[in-house]
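Protocol step 4 of 5: obtain the predicted structure for the target chain.
Materials: sequence only (see below). No template structures provided, no constraints applied. The aim of this step is simply to have a reference model before the mutagenesis design in step 5. Sequence pasted as it appears in the construct record:
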Amino acid sequence: MAGYSDVQKAVRVEKFRIWFAWVCGGFVGFGVAKATKDVHIVSVITQLLFVGLGILATVAAVRMTNALNRKAEAARRDVLGDDFPG
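Step 4 output (structure tokens):
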């Protein structure tokens, strides 16, 4: 079994990847929305699409981050021998 330090490092890297991908997706969405701003109906559709996808991506990123936090907490409890929740 991996030690707490290894799990903590892996969790930190995965969190960075999750949120880096989220930021990159936001920049891509912003670029597409900006590029289509002069085509009115396409602009409205892309803006609505990216707002919806942005909300879904944010929810997914938060859920993944929370799952990683739970994994790190379980590893900490294994190492320290804590049996108390919280």
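Step 4 remarks: The chain has a mean pLDDT of 87. The helical segments are 4-35, 40-80.
Proceed to step 5.
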